[in-house]
C-alpha cells in the first residue's frame, strides 16, 4: 500500500501468494484507489498508516500490520501478536529487535518492558533480525563477535531511557559503543545541529508561494472529490489551476460538502467545516493540498499539526504567553514559530525577563542559562506540540517536557506529533454546540460513530452519509441492567432524516444529556466487555483485540508477576518455548552510597545487582524511590542528603556484603547504621532525623526561594536536587543586570512558618567566600530589597546542616559578610 513501483507490486504479489497458500483470502489495494468497505477484512497489511480509510479501519478494531507479520505468523504456524507489527509511528520502537549483554536484571527488565510497550521485540539471543544490542562495555561476550560483522547497533542503556522519557525515538549515534559521545564529551560542549526533513512542506498552515510542482503522472486524487472552502480567499486563477490538477489526476471538484471526500479550508469554523468533520471527511488546509500534489502520495491531514485548519482564537490560556526559541534551526524553527502563532501566543526573537517560556532543543545555551536565572519555564518542543494537538494547555512540570538528553538536538524529532481528532472534535464540532446554537446537529463526531456507520463512511461510500434508520431516543435514562455478564441498555443509534442533517431530539435540559450519555454507553458496552476479556490474557490488551466471531478463543486468567517477563522468548527462530522464570517479589528498594567494593569494577557491580535482585533487593538510583539507605557512615554526599528527605531506614553497607556472602535476605534491623562520632560531629541523631523527615513529608523548605551561585563545590545541580527534595525552589544567580525577584503568590498555609523556621520573607543566596562570588552579593541584596524582602547570604554548610537534620537551625556563623571574603582568589 506504499507506492506504485514495480518492486512494491511484486512484493505484494509474493505476500498474497504466501497468504493464499495458508488458506487466507487476499485483496490487493493500490493507492490512491479507495479502500473497499472495512467489514470485508480481518487484517490490513501495510508498512505505513498513511492510506485513506486508516481511521475507519482502526475504529472498526481491525488490526493494521506490517508485512513482517505475515512471515512471522507462517513461521510460528499461528497468528502473531499484531501489536508488535503495528506500523503506527506512535509505537516508535516498532522496528527495533533488542537483545541484552551483561545488563543488571532490573535494568534489563525495564528495557524489555519499554521496548515491548512501544511496539518492539526482544530476543534472548542474537539472530538475523536483531537490530540493537544493549551493553555497558565492549568487553561483553556478545559484543566481541559483532563488531564489523553484523549490521547491529551496540548502544548504552541510556538510549532506551531517553527515548522512553521523551516518548520519541532519537538518534542512536551519541550512545553507540565502543566510543559513545555522551561519555567522552563534556556536557556543555556545543551540540550538533541536525536537519529535519520530515516537516518540509508542513511548516506553515498558509504557504506563501503558490508555485506547485506537480508530477506528470499525478494520480493522488484518483476517484476523489475535492471541495475548496470560501474562507481560503484565493484568487480565481489559482482556484482554476487547482481544479485542473485535480481533474487531470482522475478526481473532480464539487461545491457540496456532503458529496466531497476532501474538504480544504483555512479555519476550524463554519457550518461546512462542522458538517464535513462530523461526516468523517478528510479535512485539511491548503498546505496539505499542496503537499499531496507535490509528493503525489497520500498522507492524512492529521499527521502534521499545520496540515490541519487553524483556529482564529487560539488555545485557551496561551493568549498572554511570550515564547522564545533556542537551538532550533532551519525548517524546524520556521515550523515552531508558525505553531506558536497558531496557538495564539507571541513568538519573540530575543529572550527578555517578560518572557514566560523558552522552548529549546537542548539545555546548553546562553538563553537557557538566562531563563533559569529569570525563573522562566524551560521546556522542549513536545510541550508546545502536545498542547496544540490536544487543544489544551499541558503542565510544564511533566518530566517529558523538561528532559534534554545529552549530546542530542531535539530538533531531529520536531513534527512527529499528530492532531488528536477526538480533542478537536470535542472543542470544534461536537453535537452539543450545535444544539446550543439552535442548529440541527449533524452526524456524530468520529469517536461516537459505531462500527457499522464507520464502515459505511469509508471512501467506498461515495455519499459519505450515515444510515437513515431513525429509532427514537429513550425518554429517560433508566438504571443499567446486567445480563449474561454484559451491560444492557435500550438500543440507541444516531438518526438522520432524509435530505438533511440529524433532527434535534425532543428531550431537553438535563434529561437530554442523560439520554445521550446512556446512548453512548450502550455503543461502547461491547468494547468494554471485549477489553475486560482481553485484559486477562497473558500479554495484555492487543490493539484491535480478537474477532468477536472467533468462538474458539478461550482465555485462562493467570497471575502476573511483579516484574516484566521475557514473553517473547517463545518467538525464537527455532520455535522452541522456554519456561518462564518466576521472579522474587521486590521487598526492599535500596539506595547505596559510599560502597567501595564496586568502585572501578563494573562487572562485579552488575553481578552483585543481579544477585541482590534475586533476593528481593532492588538497587535504585533515585532517592524518591528508596525505602532503605545503605552507607558506611554518616556522609554528606548528594545521595545521602537527598535520601534523608524521604525518611528511609538507614542501614550499614555491611548489610549488602552479608547478603551477598550468605546469598540470603537478612533482616535490615540487624544492620542499622551506628556512627556516634559522625552524629556528634554534625550534631544530628539518625533516629530523630528520620522522625523529622516523616513529619516534614518533603516540605521542610516548602515555599522557600533559594538562590545558588554557579560555581559551588559539587556543582549547582547537586544543591538544586537537595533543595527540591525538601520542597523548595532553587534558582541560579549570576548577577545579570536588570533582574528582579520573581513574583510568587503565597498561600495561607505557606505564610505560617514552621516551629523554629525564620520568616518566609527571607531570601537566601548559597555562596562561597571567594571574591568571585562576593562580587555578586551587592546585586543580590539590591534585587531582594527592591522586592521588599530580606536578603540572606549563607555558606553551603547552612543548606547541608538543615537538610541533614531535617529541621531549621539558626547559626549566625554560617552567614557570610564582607569580613568573611577570602584573601586572593578570582
Any descriptors?
disordered N terminus; Rossmann fold; 826 residues; four-stranded parallel sheet
Structure report:
The structure is a single chain. The protein is of the alpha/beta class and 826 residues long. It folds into 6 domains: 6-85, Rossmann fold, CATH 3.40.50; 225-307, BRCT domain (Rossmann fold); 323-404, Rossmann fold (3-Layer(aba) Sandwich); 430-533, no CATH class; 588-695, Rossmann fold (3-Layer(aba) Sandwich); 698-820, 3-Layer(aba) Sandwich (Rossmann fold). The chain is built from 27 helices and 24 strands. The strands form 7 sheets. Strands 4-3-5-6 form a 4-stranded parallel β-sheet. It has a 4-stranded parallel β-sheet with strand order 8-7-9-10, with helices on both faces. InterPro entries: BRCT_dom (IPR001357), BRCT_dom_sf (IPR036420), CellCycle_DNARepair_Reg (IPR053036). Residues 466-479 have a biased composition (Low complexity).
What is the highest CATH level, the class of the largest domain? Alpha Beta
Q: How many separate structural domains? A: 6
What's the alpha carbon Rg, rounded to whole Å? 31 Å
Average residue pLDDT:
78
Separation, N- and C-terminal Cα atoms: 67 Å
Low-confidence stretches: 1-10, 433-510, 538-576, 745-752
User: What characterizes the major β-sheet?
Assistant: 4 strands, parallel
Write out the CATH superfamily name of the largest domain: BRCT domain
Structural class: alpha/beta
Strand content: 5-15%
Oligomer: single chain
Amino acid at each position: 500500500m506504499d507506492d506504485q513501483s514495480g518492486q512494491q507490486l511484486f512484493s505484494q504479489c509474493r505476500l498474497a501468494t504466501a497468504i493464499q497458500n495458508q488458506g487466507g483470502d487476499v485483496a490487493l489495494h493500490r493507492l490512491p484507489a479507495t479502500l473497499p468497505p472495512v467489514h470485508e477484512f480481518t487484517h490490513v497489511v501495510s508498512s505505513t498508516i498513511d492510506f485513506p480509510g486508516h481511521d475507519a479501519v482502526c475504529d472498526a478494531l481491525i488490526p493494521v500490520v506490517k508485512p513482517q507479520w505475515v512471515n512471522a505468523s507462517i513461521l510460528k504456524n499461528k497468528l502473531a501478536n499484531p501489536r508488535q507489527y503495528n506500523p503506527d509511528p506512535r509505537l516508535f520502537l516498532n522496528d527495533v529487535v533488542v537483545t541484552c549483554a551483561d545488563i543488571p536484571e532490573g535494568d534489563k527488565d525495564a528495557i524489555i518492558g519499554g521496548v515491548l510497550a512501544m511496539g518492539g521485540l526482544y530476543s534472548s539471543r542474537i539472530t538475523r533480525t536483531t537490530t540493537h544490542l544493549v551493553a555497558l562495555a565492549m568487553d561483553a561476550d556478545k559484543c566481541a563477535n559483532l563488531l564489523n560483522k553484523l549490521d547491529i547497533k551496540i548502544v548504552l542503556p541510556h538510549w532506551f531511557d531517553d527515548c522512553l522519557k521523551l516518548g520519541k525515538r532519537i538518534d542512536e549515534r551519541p550512545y553507540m559503543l565502543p566510543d559513545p559521545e555522551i561519555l567522552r564529551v563534556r556536557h556543555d560542549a556545543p551540540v550538533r545541529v541536525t536537519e529535519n526533513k520530515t516537516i518540509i512542506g508542513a511548516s506553515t498552515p498558509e504557504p506563501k508561494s503558490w508555485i506547485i510542482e506537480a508530477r506528470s503522472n499525478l494520480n493522488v486524487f484518483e476517484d476523489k472529490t475535492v471541495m475548496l472552502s470560501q474562507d481560503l480567499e484565493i484568487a480565481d486563477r489559482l482556484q482554476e489551476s487547482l481544479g485542473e490538477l485535480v481533474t487531470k489526476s482522475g478526481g473532480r471538484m464539487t461545491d457540496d460538502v456532503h458529496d466531497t471526500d476532501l474538504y480544504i479550508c483555512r479555519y476550524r469554523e463554519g457550518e461546512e467545516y462542522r458538517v464535513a468533520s462530523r461526516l468523517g471527511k478528510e479535512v485539511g488546509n491548503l498546505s496539505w493540498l499542496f503537499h499531496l500534489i507535490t509528493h503525489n502520495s497520500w498522507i492524512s491531514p492529521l499527521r502534521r499539526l499545520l496540515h490541519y485548519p487553524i483556529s482564529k482564537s487560539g488555545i485557551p490560556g496561551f493568549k498572554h504567553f511570550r515564547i522564545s526559541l533556542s537551538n532550533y534551526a532551519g525548517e524546524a524553527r520556521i515550523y515552531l514559530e508558525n505553531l506558536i502563532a497558531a496557538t495564539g501566543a507571541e513568538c519573540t526573537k530575543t529572550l527578555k525577563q517578560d518572557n514566560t517560556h523558552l522552548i529549546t532543543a537542548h539545555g546548553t545555551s546562553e538563553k537557557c542559562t538566562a531563563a533559569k536565572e529569570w525563573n522562566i519555564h524551560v521546556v522542549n518542543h513536545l510541550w508546545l506540540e502536545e498542547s496544540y494537538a490536544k487543544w489544551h494547555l499541558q503542565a510544564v512540570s511533566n518530566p517529558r517536557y523538561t528532559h534534554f538528553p545529552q549530546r542530542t538536538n531535539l530538533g531531529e524529532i520536531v513534527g512527529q506529533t499528530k492532531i488528536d481528532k477526538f480533542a478537536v472534535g470535542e472543542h470544534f464540532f461536537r453535537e452539543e454546540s450545535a444544539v446550543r446554537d439552535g442548529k440541527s446537529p449533524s452526524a456524530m463526531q468520529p469517536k461516537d460513530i459505531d462500527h457499522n456507520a464507520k464502515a459505511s463512511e469509508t471512501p467506498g461510500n461515495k455519499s459519505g452519509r450515515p444510515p437513515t434508520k431513525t429509532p427514537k431516543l429513550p425518554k429517560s435514562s433508566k438504571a443499567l441492567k446486567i445480563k449474561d455478564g454484559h451491560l444492557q441498555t435500550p438500543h440507541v443509534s444516531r438518526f438522520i432524516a432524509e435530505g438533511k442533517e440529524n433532527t434535534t431530539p425532543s428531550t431537553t435540559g438535563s434529561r437530554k444529556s442523560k439520554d445521550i450519555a446512556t446512548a453512548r454507553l450502550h455503543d461502547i458496552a461491547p468494547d468494554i466487555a471485549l477489553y475486560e476479556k482481553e485484559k486477562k490474557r497473558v500479554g495484555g490488551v492487543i490493539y484491535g483485540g480478537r474477532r468477536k466471531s472467533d468462538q474458539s478463543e478461550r482465555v485462562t486468567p493467570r497471575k502476573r508477576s511483579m516484574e516484566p517477563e521475557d514473553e517473547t522468548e517463545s518467538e525464537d527462530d527455532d520455535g522452541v518455548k522456554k519456561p518462564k522464570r518466576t521472579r522474587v517479589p521486590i521487598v526492599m528498594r535500596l539506595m547505596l552510597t559510599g560502597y567501595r567494593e564496586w568502585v572501578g569494577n563494573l562487572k562485579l557491580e552488575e553481578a552483585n545487582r543481579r544477585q541482590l535482585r534475586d533476593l528481593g533487593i532492588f538497587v535504585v538510583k533515585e532517592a524518591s524511590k528508596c525505602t532503605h539507605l545503605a552507607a558506611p557512615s554518616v556522609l554528606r554526599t548528594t545521595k545521602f542528603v537527598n535520601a534523608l528527605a524521604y525518611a528511609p531506614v538507614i542501614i550499614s553497607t555491611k548489610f549488602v556484603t552479608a547478603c551477598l556472602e550468605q546469598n540470603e535476605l537478612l533482616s535490615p534491623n540487624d544492620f542499622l547504621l551506628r556512627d556516634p562520632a559522625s552524629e556528634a560531629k554534625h550534631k544530628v541523631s539518625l533516629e530523630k532525623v528520620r522522625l523529622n523527615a516523616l513529619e516534614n513529608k518533603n516540605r521542610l523548605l516548602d515555599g522557600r526561594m533559594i538562590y545558588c551561585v554557579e560555581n559551588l563545590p559539587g556543582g549547582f545541580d547537586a544543591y538544586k536536587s537537595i533543595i527540591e527534595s525538601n520542597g523548595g525552589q532553587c534558582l541560579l544567580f549570576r548577577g545579570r543586570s536588570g533582574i528582579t525577584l520573581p513574583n510568587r503568590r503565597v498561600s495561607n498555609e505557606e505564610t505560617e512558618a514552621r516551629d523554629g523556621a525564620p520568616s518566609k520573607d527571607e531570601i537566601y543566596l548559597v555562596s562561597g567566600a571567594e571574591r568571585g562570588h562576593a562580587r555578586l552579593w551587592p546585586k543580590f541584596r539590591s534585587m531582594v530589597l527592591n522586592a521588599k524582602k530580606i536578603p540572606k547570604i549563607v555558606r553551603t554548610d547552612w543548606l547541608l546542616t538543615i537538610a541533614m537534620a531535617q529541621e531549621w537551625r539558626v547559626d549566625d556563623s554560617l552567614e557570610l559578610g564582607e569580613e568573611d571574603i577570602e584573601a586572593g582568589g578570582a
